[in-house]
Amino acid sequence: MPPTIAPLAHRVLPRCSVSPTLAAASSLSCSSSSFSSLASNAAAHGRAIHTSKQRPSPPMPASFDAAVTSTAQASTQAVGEQISAPSTPKKPSPLSVLPLSCILRSLMTTTVSSSPILLGPSMAIMTALAHSTNPLLNPDRNFVLRFFLKKTFYAQFCAGENEREVRHTIDGLKAIGFRGVILGYAKEVVLKDEEKKNLASFDAASRKEATAEEIRAWADGTLETVRLAATCDFVALKFSGAGLEALADLARQSPPSPALADAIDRICQLAVSRGVRLLFDAEQQAVQAGIDDWTMTYMRKYNTPERAVVFGTYQGYLKASGAVLSEHLRQAREGGFALGVKLVRGAYLGSDPRQLIHDTKEDTDVAYDGMAEALLRRQWMAPLTPDSGAFPAVSLVVASHNAASVERAQAILASGTAATTDVAFGQLQGMADEISCKLVLDAKSVQPATKQADACVQAYKYLVWGSTGECMKYLLRRAHENRDAVERTRSTRDAMVAEVLRRFKSVFGMA
């Protein structure tokens, strides 16, 4: 192009809206018509432009035509791929699997639990309801109070008051995609400081009939819980629900009474026959050493070398948990049985002595994640105490509301480096639903009959059943747990708000 034309042509040539890879070819396709238009405009203004056919064109490189053709073909192919390539489907929201009623109820409870203004009065009311002997404050006797609690907090955390309600709740969870449930009978005792001191002077002979009734009621409720559970479900036991004599024996680290021992055996035998597994829950430190002794006794009796039926519970927030777990692993190795481990952070912050608990949350996180990794890899690593012997078989329940801990355990399983594959993940009903539902979706995304399916995440929900009055102490502990983990509660609240907004937008096609 002559020098007098080039600046003007630069201004006149149209800009083509194409990808950068099409720039060269596009400019060539535009140049012919643009130059003709340029010539006409220049002639109209009396400006001389040489267009003689005799004037030779500037020489073109021999490879120019091939380069233009190649560029155009590549650009056409790139555009074609952009048009034909399928768009990546948007990952569904984990909370999309929950009914709207659950989302709204969870939003209500987490809003109360994360509000400094609402939480104080709510805790005072819950404490009064859990410990009062006034019939007006007993939900089982006050119809209005029972109706309110059952439609709100009870519905959020509990399974039901009878077989029909419990089965309906369990069926609903399994329909969502949960592998199963961890079901517990709500009857329990949370001791006050004065009551802990009185256990040392407990006289069983003076209340034989009351003791027998306490054991019978606990045994009947727990046996019914095992019957409500299905194969591969778990049943959680709280020995404190068996009465004052059980608590006194636990505090003294004595064996269970003959009547209670017989009841525990009947529960274990029924669980074995139904393919149900038993989680012996941790409780307050005043009785925990006795619970550990009882747990190991029944592990020796009912666990096989490859698989656990009875599980103990280990609390990550206790400084001594690593040493206790290490000792139990050695006992399992020597006894030739698999150790059942339910790993939790801890739920008795309000009653356990502060000096027994890790100094910071970060210390608790490190201890919990370290124990989980050691058990998954079956290696004697911190915080376990060193040991040169073999690591026994382990069945593990990762019970955590901490997203980072759950993801770490999932990553170890997914990597194929885990030596322990009998693993379940569990969260409390009504809490950490954003984590639970993600576990469900992760499990659904795994193709059957693959290596990943062998280590597929098994997601469970922990919930209790019983009358509204019987569940009050359990509900109070849930309230304490939410109070002590405000940041996590706010995270769940924010997740629920986001899910409500997402569903609202989807109604109008904006999601």
TrEMBL record:
InterPro entries in the record: FAD-linked_oxidoreductase-like, Proline_DH_dom, Proline_oxidase
Pfam families: Pro_dh
EC class name: oxidoreductase
Residue span of region Disordered: 46-67, 75-94
Taxonomy, superkingdom: Eukaryota
Cofactor: FAD
Swiss-Prot/TrEMBL catalytic activity: L-proline + a quinone = (S)-1-pyrroline-5-carboxylate + a quinol + H(+)
PANTHER family tied to this protein: PROLINE DEHYDROGENASE, PROLINE OXIDASE
Function of the protein: Converts proline to delta-1-pyrroline-5-carboxylate.
Family the UniProt entry places it in: Belongs to the proline oxidase family.
Record-given protein name: Proline dehydrogenase
The organism of origin for this protein: Sporothrix curviconia
Designated gene of the protein: PUT1
